[in-house]
Write a structure and sequence with these properties.
The structure holds 2 protein chains of 2 kinds.
Chain A (H helix, E strand, L loop, with lengths): L8 E12 L2 E13 L4 E5 L6 H8 L8 E10 L2 E2 L5 H7 L4 E4 L3 H4 L6 H13 L3 H14 L5 H4 L9 H13 L5 E5 L7 H18 L2 E6 L2 H7 L2 E6 L2 E7 H6 L4 H9 L39 H5 L5 E4 L2 E3 L3 E2 L4 E2 L4
Parallel strand pairs in A: 3-8, 3-9, 6-7, 7-8
Antiparallel strand pairs in A: 1-2, 1-4, 4-5, 9-10, 10-12, 11-12, 13-14
Helix pairs in contact in A: 4-5, 5-7
Chain B lengths: L8 E16 L4 E17 L3 E5 L6 H8 L7 E6 L2 E2 L5 H7 L3 E4 L13 H12 L4 H14 L16 H13 L5 E5 L7 H18 L2 E6 L2 H7 L2 E6 L2 E7 H6 L4 H9 L5 H6 L39 E5 L2 E4 L1 H4 L6 H16 L1
Parallel strand pairs in B: 3-8, 3-9, 6-7, 7-8
Antiparallel strand pairs in B: 1-2, 1-4, 4-5, 9-10, 10-12, 11-12
Classes of the chains: A alpha/beta, B alpha/beta.
GO molecular function, one term (chain A): ATP binding
GO cellular component, one term (chain A): plasma membrane
Main location (chain A): membrane
Chain lengths: 335, 352
């Protein structure tokens, strides 16, 4: 696992709100994290936890309005992405920062051939000629394991299966050799055996190309197999962040602990009854003045209603945003 | 091992086939068929949960719907509670509908957005009973209590509920007529992990309380391991393996089951790093043009010559553990796996 070094991406205090008819929705609340070169950061959370919105905010993919980025900074190679303006951002997107979306059917354009869609970023960002771009496109399709690549350039997205389409998406994202790849639930729409193929491919590609990856998922199993470091999100906030082994072995936040217990596995102990997290995730209409998890938390006390806990360091590279200390089974003194 | 003979078979499916015709050309002539479910047989015992797993397109949902006769089946028999419904006409079948119900995958799509919760839940009561309005409302309230919905919300509309609550509405509707058998078609696939556990626990509680029998269709192998007593694995329209839960997860026999289980990521980094993964190459073939011989022969890591020509028959390797694979049917060519399997069979028989 790569350690230290200057982060390729440094996000501080990012705040995103959506303006809706029923008021402001605080989708992302003071989210801070960094991404080291060559590292794979897993982002886990349920739907509505703000994981996708955070990543879309970073690279200006949210429609404004209704979205509004209220503050914070996103430093990528010395530039603040929130300040550089749309033209410069467009240059970075697709060349320095690649993006893979969840659903490969809706994110590929059905009326253009796959070859055209891979060549587009190559010609736009790298200034390659038509024939150079085609040669590179064939290389890319071979890299992601699509057989008979040269012929398949002429095919349309619907002629590919789900797993193959996701490979095409990854090829497009990798086209310009990005420093950062953001993958938003890239295997959620796929079957398990196909998911296993894509995960294996991702491991190979990271070894070959050495880019840093942000992998968004709700599947703790996927995270356990692929991530170096994990960030857990809940209610638009980062509630815990730790190296992958540390997080699974020694979870500190009650939400992380509960989440790990609700997930059954195909091996290991089989429990008679599943542990549940009672209640529903919060609707983020109120400004965050209290802990977002307090209503579903088994350890909540008076302070959790009054204050929103800040992230405190609980171990090497490990922090959690909670007033409760699982080691002493009582309130945490610091902070 | 469960003692099969002592338990009553509530559902018996024999040689079920569900083929959908393909029409093409200017004359829309019949040019082929999609063999969504191709000759499968299984039983569901009273009070148990049979898990039906497989990847998308393997025919598991079609199988569930065909068992309830939501389709007119191509061939085979389906007996529920001693009544043969496979060939029954829909009008007669209507009288038997109350004993078999279904919970659908997408609670958004399976609840009418213009009906209140009370009307949704009481619709089966209107169709099949002569209850007065007062009795109907009492029954609706009783059902809402049973699935953990606040009865004050009876006059609300589906969009006012979250995904997990909507699934509870769907379950309440399925329970309205006191069914014996419920087909749950991916009931938790659309829900978040923390909500999935709530719905699964509810289904288990209801089963204990009401003695329900489930056919639980899912692609989530870890959740099926939790809820099912026995598990059937489908691939391309066929059941490739059927076994009691613990046997299936501990000692899968069919190469597809092995690959499927090894592909499921484990939520534990130390297990994940040690895991020997069987990565299948390629994609599932089209069910309109399945390969010759065994359906899995195009992707099987242990494929042999015979697999490409002869369709394997189903054999019982241990009591209640069935699989359809040439590794276990061939006695002339003794492969290593074969010997292991036979030894396992021997020890199982001795253990009885």
């Amino acid at each position: 696992m790569p350690d230290g070094g200057v982060p390729v991406l440094d996000v501080k205090d990012l705040k995103t709100v959506f303006l809706t008819r029923s008021g402001e929705v605080h989708a992302v609340n003071s989210v801070s994290f960094d991404l080291k070169p060559g590292e794979l950061l897993g982002v886990v959370g349920e739907s509505g936890s703000g994981k996708s919105v955070t990543m879309m905010s970073l690279i200006g993919l949210l429609p404004t309005p209704p979205a509004e980025i209220r503050g914070g900074s996103v430093v990528f190679e010395g530039e603040d992405l929130l300040k550089i303006g749309e033209d410069r951002l467009r240059k970075l997107r697709g060349s320095r920062i690649g993006f893979v979306f969840q659903d490969p059917m809706t994110s590929l354009n059905p009326v253009f051939t796959v070859g055209f869609q891979i060549c587009e970023p190559l010609r736009k960002h790298m200034g390659l000629s038509k024939s150079e771009a085609r040669t590179r496109a064939v290389e890319l399709l071979e890299l992601v394991g699509i057989p008979d690549a040269r012929r398949r350039l002429r095919d349309y997205p619907h002629q590919f299966s789900g797993g193959m389409r996701q490979r095409v998406m990854i090829a497009i994202a990798l086209a310009c050799d990005p420093d950062v790849l953001i993958a938003d639930e890239p295997t959620t729409a796929l079957d398990v055996t196909i998911q296993a193929q894509i995960l294996e491919l991702m491991k190979e590609l990271r070894e070959k190309l050495g880019m840093a990856v942000i992998w968004i998922t709700h599947d703790l199993g996927v995270i356990a197999g692929i991530a170096d470091r994990v960030m857990v999100m809940y209610g638009g906030q980062v509630v815990e962040q730790a190296p992958v082994r540390e997080l699974f072995a020694n979870p500190q936040h009650p939400y992380t602990r509960a989440l790990l217990q609700t997930v059954p596995s195909v091996s290991g102990e089989r429990s008679e009854k599943l542990r549940v997290i009672e209640g529903q995730p919060p609707i983020l209409v109120d400004a965050p003045s209290a802990c977002p998890f307090r209503a579903r938390c088994g350890h909540a006390f008076a302070r959790c209603d009054r204050e929103n806990p800040a992230r405190v360091t609980v171990g090497p590279g490990h922090d959690a945003a909670c007033f409760w200390n699982p080691a002493t089974e009582g309130p945490r003194d610091a902070g | 091992m469960l003692d099969d003979t002592a338990r009553r078979k509530l559902v018996e499916v024999k040689n079920l086939k569900m083929h959908f015709p393909i029409y093409s050309g200017v004359l829309r002539s019949r040019t082929g068929e999609v063999k969504a479910v191709d000759d499968i047989s299984f039983d569901v015992f009273e009070g148990e949960t049979l898990g039906l797993v497989g990847e998308s397109g393997c025919g598991k949902s079609t199988c569930g719907r065909a068992v309830l006769r939501l389709y007119d089946i191509t061939e085979g028999t389906v007996t529920i509670d001693g009544i043969e419904i496979g060939t029954m006409d829909q009008q007669t079948l209507r009288g038997y509908r109350p004993m078999m119900q279904m919970v659908f995958q997408d609670p958004q799509a399976s609840l009418n957005p213009r009906m209140t919760v009370a009307r949704i839940i009481s619709e089966p009561l209107e169709e099949h009973t002569d209850l007065s309005d007062v009795d109907k409302l009492a029954r609706v309230h009783e059902l809402m209590d049973a699935v953990g919905l606040n009865r004050d919300f009876a006059n609300r509309y589906p969009h006012e509920f979250s995904g997990g609550q909507r699934q509870r509405i769907g379950i309440a509707r399925a329970l309205a007529l006191n069914p014996k058998f419920i087909v749950c078609d991916e009931p938790i696939a659309a829900l978040d992990v923390s909500i999935q556990a709530q719905v699964v626990n509810l289904l288990e509680e209801l089963q204990d309380k009401l003695g329900l029998t489930y056919l639980f269709i899912s692609h989530d192998l870890s959740m099926v391991r939790h809820i099912a007593d026995r598990v059937a694995v489908m691939y391309l329209g066929k059941v490739v393996e059927l076994a009691p839960r613990d046997a299936l997860y501990a000692t899968p026999k069919h190469p597809y089951t092995e690959a499927l289980l090894s592909a499921v990521p484990d939520p534990d980094p130390s297990v994940e790093n040690r895991k020997e993964r069987v990565i299948l190459t390629g994609d599932v073939p089209s069910p309109s043009n399945p390969p010759q011989g065994c359906n899995f022969c195009t992707r099987c890591p242990k494929v042999m010559e015979i697999c490409k020509t002869v369709d394997p028959t189903t054999v019982e390797l241990a009591p209640g553990h069935f699989t359809a694979c040439h590794l276990y049917t061939q006695t002339t060519t003794m492969t290593a796996d074969n010997t292991v399997a036979q030894e396992a069979q021997k020890s199982d028989q001795q253990g009885e």
